[in-house]
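Researcher: Please generate the 3D structure of the following complex. Treat every line as part of one assembly.
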Amino acid sequence: MNNNEIFAEAAAPQPSPSHIWENFKEWIRRNLKGDIIIWLIVVLLSLGSMLVVYSATGTLAYQHGGGYPELFLLKHAGYLFVGLFVMWLVHRVNYTYFVRLSRAALFMSIPLLILVKVAGVTINGATRWLAIPGIGITFQPADFARMALIANLAAMLAKRQRVDYDWQVFTRMILWVGIICFCTALSSTSTAALLGITCFLMLFIGRVPAKYLLVMVLFIGVAGGLGLVFGQRLETAKGRIERFLANDEHQARQAIIAVANGGTFGTGPGNSHQRNYLTQAFSDFIYAIIIEEYGLIGGAIVLILYLWLLVRGVKNISLTNRAFGGLLSAGLTLSIVIQAFANMTVAVGLVPVTGQPLPLLSMGGTSILFTCVSLGVVLSVSRGEADESKI
Amino acid sequence: MISKTNNIRADIARRSWVVSSLLIIVAILVIWRIVYVQHYAKYKGKPWVKYMANTVRIDTIPAMRGNIYSSDGSLLATSLPYYEVSIDPAASKEKYFYSRIDSLATLFANTFGQRTKEDYLRELKFARHEFEVNKKKGNRNVRLLNRQITFREYQMITTQQIQPSAKATRGWPFFRQFNNGETRGGKLPVFYRRYLPFGNLAARTIGYLDRATYRGLVGLEASFDRKLSGTPGIGLFRVLDDKTFMPFEESEKLQPANGYDLYTTLDVNFQDIAESSLRKTLNRYQADYGTVIVMEVQTGAIKAMVNLALSKKDTGYAETFNYALAQPTNPGSTFKLATMVAALEEGKVSPATSIQTGNGSTTYGRVTITDTKAHGTITVQQVLEQSSNVGTHLIMQRSGFYTNPYKYMEYLKKFHLTQPTGVAMLGEAPPLAPQPKTTGWDGTSATRLSYGYVWEITPLQTLSFYNAIANNGYWVRPMIVQEVRNANEVIQAIKPQVLEQRIASEQTIRRVQKMLEGAVADKQGTGHIIHNDQYQIAGKTGTAQLIINNTYSKVGKYNVSFAGYFPAKSPKYSCIVFVSHPKGGRGDNLYAGSVAAPVFKEVADRIVGYDVKMHPPVPNKKNNVKETNKQLRAGQADDLRTIAEALNTDAPVNVNGWVMSAPNTKKQWTNTDTNPNKIPNLRGMSLRDALYLLENHGFKVNYQGMGKITDYTLKNDVYALILK
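Model: Done. Output below.
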């Protein structure tokens, strides 16, 4: 649009509603590349998260924020805004650039994960965060490592689509998966387990023969087990599983009460009762609060949004010429959706308590940023313009 | 090549749909689980939703009860915090408990001495053991002391430093508060108790509280309970967990509003004077009870209200019931004043009218009227002064009150004797005042009423009538509270209520005032015993036979009283003294003149001595000024100038700061503070100036004597001053 056009538009007497809508569509088309549906899902989830976080932080605000939940809301909205902006930036970048970047990131993530063990910040009894010096922001190196590993794995799998697998070829992949999962398990068992599952599914999608997958399962199991034993979280994990089996976990019980209280249509926005009892109402148990306030219907909508996201992410496979883009997109969406399902199954009491936030919906700044970067990459893939031959 | 790529892609796509299907299955599981939890799942036999905890807890936040002050600002009643001391032996970790329990037991045993250390240890360790062995069974609230502790003791327990270690720990073990305000099991819940700084003084007038509800039960505490108690806050709390309650935002409106302070008209000194005088007499005559009220004539402000009754526990006299306000009795002869005012108003007799009382005994219908002695022929004036029953009866007859008792009743109503005074205190007893042709009234009633029987009225009622006479006929409602304040803000200022209409004509009032003066001043007056030359008292005695088992008792059982005012010429205070059933003799040594009147005099004497405003100004004689000028004077020049101006003595001229007059010379003043590092000459200074000077320079000061400093010595930084 040159200057003349701008003036011409400004001079137009009264733009009709349909005109505005056309302009809006034009603006979207020009600025938001890639799968518009994914954009839509992200926006819906972001708006939803504002509602739920505002309601769920009332208690937190009283305990730490001097009684102003608005402060938490503003902070959360800020993170969402930055996240969406980062997502927009990332989605304009050709995803093939991330391959080289991710290799470096993978090497970096190992010392970071070990650093967490040594000098991490403890939040809610788990040491998973690293403070970035000077700006007071903490982040989970596990999030970082996960992205790096998925991107690398996608690249490695893509290269091996035309070769026959032998142990040597397979070992390199599985070694990376093992190392990262082990290092992650040092600080967070559940994150490591989810990453293991995601990688396994990626390997399956990436057409790794069944016998190798079987070996891998064994390997991950052993590596994860060792991580547990030598890490800090064995007792927590053991206790949680024991209490889950005995239905003796206070938080889980409170979450189930929230679910039960929600009914079909929920108690309405801001009317959650159980948020006062769930210390992690705004994060690990946010899905329980969603069901309490918006009922089975609201819970199902959130569930469907994530499934839809998965479907759109997987659909990218058919968009790309080569396997890398598809695998990258499928892997990243899978990791997000699996994390979401981990959160939701915990909230409704299907599995023992883990400390997984609900991507995009939970409060938690840096976790949102990493999710947005992942989705930005997925969107970049969905543009379907990249030439993968040079990878 | 292309087909292979397509095959690969298709295979990847197919595999990813397999994975997606797995997640869809999980999604279905989640939905199923939600439906199951909402409709079918049970936990310990109940649907999950039944386990929802109570969210809202209503707590009242007690408001601070206001204080009660005397008119001079002394604190009469206030609330003090007391604390109960107990401990939850299961609240601390095992290591903490066993390493510190010994220290705790020692501290409590040594400091309070209620129980031995071993005793404490046994109980606490047992309770802890019980808790460890079978949870929840042990006593989790072990009382450590059988009394509540004071704020000082509370401070000691919570802040005393036990170990002088580098890591300063304040407070006794288990009781020290950590950053979150929690202790390791020590509990010190607060209870407020009402405290009267002056002890028994006016205790019944001030009143006391219901122990359980902390609301006023009697006295001013009850009368002004709503003002004093404030409004307790109602806190709506969201229960977050067992320990955290989050107040609802709306509840800010329900913050407790602290009670207002009450400024009474009572004067601690008056009260003290009245109480000690009455107590002396009660003790001497072993009377059942007694009461004294002192009231300011023009305002009706009650300056003292004493009620002393013989305690059943044989612990002497104490303030247990407000007889002054709530015990109507036959007033006796003090009531003759009302009859006299009515008769004079009726105009059938005048003070000089002669009345033949004869030999002091007569009959009228079925009543036999007797005087204590034969008065013979006396004037109407003397009838009241000498308190003749026969004379009063004859005045009634002459005034036509027997033929028309309603006329008499009308006067009594006008005198405010038929209804309560309306003082702002709960519990005022209305007078028992039967009217003609009603129950309790017969043919003899008018006669007996005229000299103080039949009706029963309270001492306050009688006093307010006498006060009206003193106030030139203007009746004033007694008042006891002059201000209700919220800190320094005056919420309610209570004005004296003076009736616009006189209760009787000015002439009548002047006539009866004379009679009341005569009752004390005249040698034949019943109150002559208290006559004195310094100032004049006007008043009337009252001796009434006690009613025992519905009949008047035999001789020797009386209620005696003296009502009056002083100084007689320009009345400042009215006062009534009432003593019930003084013992220790028969006949006139138990009469009002012997028992009640001396109390009145003592109270009046001491009040006159205390109240400077009542003294006539002393003329400043030339001679005095000369003497003063000769004296050595020292102090701040400005202060001395002010004093000199008021006393018309020589003022220091041309000097400033600390100065002294040259001894024995006129009009010569010298500065004494020429060297700022030296203490000026102290001779001639007042103690107040000297203390200010010396203590500001860091000296300690001893002194003896009264007056001005005549000599002083300095030894080891201690000044010894001699005052003369």
